[in-house]
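Form 7-S
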Amino acid sequence: MHAKKRVRVDSLDVRSSYSHGFTVTFGRLIRFHIESFLKIICH
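Output:
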């Protein structure tokens, strides 16, 4: 019973860390595109 609880927590941690990494990567991509877009407009 205790082992099952621990496995469930581990899977939740993995899922939350994976979603966090995805959000960070997505945010960096958006920022990069916005910066390049602004550079094109300025030049």
